[in-house]
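User: Here's a structure from my thesis project, written as structure tokens. My advisor, Dr. K., wants to see whether a designed sequence matches the one we expressed. Can you design one independently, without my sequence as a hint?
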């Protein structure tokens, strides 16, 4: 089997790596947009309920075929379902009630570092120098975008209680990424995702019953419905399947570093959809992020690490 750390990026792999940050950038915006109408647990339950409907037509067959493999790797399957599907999204939606999207993006940018840290602590995996340097360069680009190129913005940035919640979500995603890598690539990712989503729904349902005692979801508006459909399809099904496949191809750290592209897509979406002006600092930040991603991948063929 080829070493994921030495896999070269062809255009198909690059698409797999770029689709998740594109759709997840939209998920942050969408989650913030409906936070006043749909409480966190209800939003998570609706999201994965819609994802299940999308998955069933093509994932049911591999799900049934690979069920013995899920038992063989039951702890990794359960761990990824709890951290990456159920808990991560619930914490993000909860945190967005009391913090800004900017703070969320900053915290999201620490995922690659958390993947590397937990990879070392749990599996004694070492981060090659070129990947560490690339991560630092791309992080500098992220901070340039979210601070509007003004260091003073970062120095005076205030963090809310929701930031702690979102940081816990980032820890969950780092663990999800590492445990996902431990599940063999020969197990079909669509069937695996259906299994993970069903576990997450079982965990979320009692929480929803508890939440519904005090909070009611309002989804009668057309804009809210379209937003929920987006959340249930693009950042859920398409992005998750692409990310799972990318992790199996190039490794956990190399896949997670592409999460730094989220502010790039956030800026582009704001310019295209909201007609917001495109600034010079955004271009500088984007170029810096892509430079960091390139640095993290260019010497991968010399690295023995399988992060």
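Assistant: Designed independently from the structure alone:
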């Amino acid at each position: 089997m080829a070493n994921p750390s030495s896999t070269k990026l062809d255009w198909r792999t690059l698409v797999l790596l770029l689709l998740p940050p594109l759709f997840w950038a939209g998920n942050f915006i969408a989650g913030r947009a409906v936070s006043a109408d749909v409480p966190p647990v209800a939003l998570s339950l609706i999201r994965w309920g819609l994802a299940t409907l999308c998955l069933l037509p093509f994932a049911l067959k591999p799900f049934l075929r690979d069920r013995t493999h899920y038992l063989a790797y039951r702890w990794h399957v359960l761990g990824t379902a709890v951290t990456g599907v159920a808990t991560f999204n619930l914490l993000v939606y909860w945190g967005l009630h009391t913090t800004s999207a900017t703070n969320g993006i900053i915290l999201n940018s620490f995922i690659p570092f958390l993947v590397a840290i937990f990879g070392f602590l749990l599996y004694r995996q070492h981060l090659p120098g070129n990947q560490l340097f690339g991560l630092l360069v791309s992080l500098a680009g992220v901070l340039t975008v979210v601070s509007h190129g003004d260091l003073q913005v970062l120095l005076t940035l205030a963090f809310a209680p929701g930031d702690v919640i979102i940081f816990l979500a980032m820890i969950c995603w780092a663990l999800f990424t590492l445990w996902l890598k431990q599940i063999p690539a020969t197990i079909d990712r669509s069937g695996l995702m259906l299994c993970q989503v069903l576990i997450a729904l079982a965990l979320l349902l009692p929480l929803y019953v508890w939440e519904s005692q005090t909070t009611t979801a309002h989804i009668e508006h057309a804009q809210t419905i379209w937003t929920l459909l987006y959340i249930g399809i693009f950042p859920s099904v398409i992005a998750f399947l692409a990310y799972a496949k990318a992790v199996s191809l190039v490794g956990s750290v190399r896949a997670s570093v592409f999460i730094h592209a989220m502010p790039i897509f956030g800026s582009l979406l704001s310019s295209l959809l909201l007609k917001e002006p495109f600034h010079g600092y955004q271009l500088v930040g984007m170029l810096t992020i892509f430079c960091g991603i390139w640095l993290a991948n260019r010497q991968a063929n010399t690295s023995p690490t399988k992060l």
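When you compare it with your expressed construct, this may help: The chain is about 75% helix and 0% strand.
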